[in-house]
């Protein structure tokens, strides 16, 4: 959809303009937030909406939530206002009110208070009550926010002080029917027993962390030297249903329970093994798409068979976003080195259930 893009992109999300019904691709990059209208690709034009470094994005009801800035904060952007401002970018500035003088209520972009230094964010919908939650990992712990329709924004519910693993490779909400608020998984390790995993969960309902709570239960009573838990090179963690969690590490995708046991199910496999190290993954209702340096491979949950495959050793691929539009960045390899001067090519992956 775009050749020679010079931006250093971290993430992408898609958004449909409620009035024009145009589909927009929003790009979060080192250079700021950019907009690519997928219905006007003939113009081959990417417009800047915001000029701060942006590493994470999420769209809800014409509102864009981002992690932006050199020291990341959570920001809320009004997409319709940002786009209308951008469409008048050639108008005279004489009668424009400076952004800082606009009352906060009408500001296009607002910084969410008390979110300085947020390193990771995740969003989840509770299927049992319909609420949408946003969790952020800050220097002092985890904050939990809930989407509030009348105000069209996320409202802070609570902050749980805790010490998080560093680096924080896992940060995903786990939602259960019996708890009002989610639990947050911040680490997954290999347990002492084979085919067992240790999930470090922080319970946002009570503020209790379940770190090492079953350390003693893992021992069989005969060991004199406590074996070290094996840290896994986690690529992705995502909850499939109330008692199934997908965990991806190295070249393996496993389905486990919130208690860390491998999920046994006659109708689907509990483990998928790929012949390459997985760099990123997309979970579909009946299969997974695993991405590697030179392409991707899809495998079925039902029988583990390959559903689709793309491999091109002359190019490198990187998954940028996978909300409704799966976005890939690709570079041509020349004599074994990547040339960044020419920029990246942006592709949309079509032909799977998550696309329009």
UniProtKB/TrEMBL annotation:
InterPro entries (UniProt xref): CNH_dom (IPR001180)
Database matches in Pfam families: CNH
Coiled coil: none
PROSITE patterns registered for this protein in UniProt: CNH
Stretches assigned to the CNH domain: 6-325
Recorded superkingdom: Eukaryota
Name of this protein: CNH domain containing protein
Source species of the chain: Asbolus verrucosus
Phylogenetic classification of the source organism: Eukaryota, Metazoa, Ecdysozoa, Arthropoda, Hexapoda
């Amino acid at each position: 959809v775009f050749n020679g893009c010079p931006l250093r992109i971290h993430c992408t999300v898609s958004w449909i303009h409620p009035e024009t019904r145009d589909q927009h691709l929003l790009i979060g990059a080192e250079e700021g937030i950019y907009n690519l209208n997928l219905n006007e690709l003939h113009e081959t034009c990417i417009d800047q909406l915001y000029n701060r470094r942006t590493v994470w994005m999420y769209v809800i009801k014409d509102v864009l939530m981002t992690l932006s800035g050199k020291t990341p904060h959570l920001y809320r952007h009004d997409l319709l206002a940002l786009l209308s401002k951008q469409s008048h970018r050639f108008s005279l500035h004489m009668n424009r009110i400076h952004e800082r003088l606009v009352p906060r209520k009408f500001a296009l972009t607002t910084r969410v208070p008390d979110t300085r230094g947020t390193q990771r964010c995740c969003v989840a919908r509770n299927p049992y009550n319909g609420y949408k939650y946003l969790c952020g990992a800050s220097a002092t712990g985890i904050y939990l926010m809930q989407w509030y329709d009348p105000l069209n924004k996320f409202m802070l519910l609570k902050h749980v002080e805790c010490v998080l693993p560093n680096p924080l490779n896992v940060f995903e909400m786990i939602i259960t029917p019996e708890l009002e608020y989610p639990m947050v998984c911040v680490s997954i390790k290999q347990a002492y027993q084979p085919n067992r995993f240790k999930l470090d969960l922080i319970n946002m309902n009570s503020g209790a962390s379940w770190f090492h709570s079953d350390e003693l239960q893992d021992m069989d009573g005969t060991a004199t030297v406590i074996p070290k838990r094996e840290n896994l090179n986690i690529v992705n963690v995502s909850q499939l249903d109330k008692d199934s969690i997908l965990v991806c590490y190295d070249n393996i995708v496993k389905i486990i329970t919130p208690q860390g046991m491998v999920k046994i199910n006659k109708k689907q496999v509990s483990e998928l093994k790929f012949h390459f190290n997985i760099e990123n993954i997309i979970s579909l209702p009946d299969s997974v798409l695993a991405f590697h340096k030179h392409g991707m491979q899809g495998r079925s949950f039902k029988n583990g068979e390959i559903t689709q495959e793309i491999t091109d050793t002359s190019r490198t691929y990187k998954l940028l976003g996978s909300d409704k539009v799966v976005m890939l960045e690709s570079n041509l390899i020349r004599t074994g080195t990547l040339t960044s001067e020419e920029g990246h090519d942006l592709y949309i992956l079509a032909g799977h259930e998550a696309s329009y």
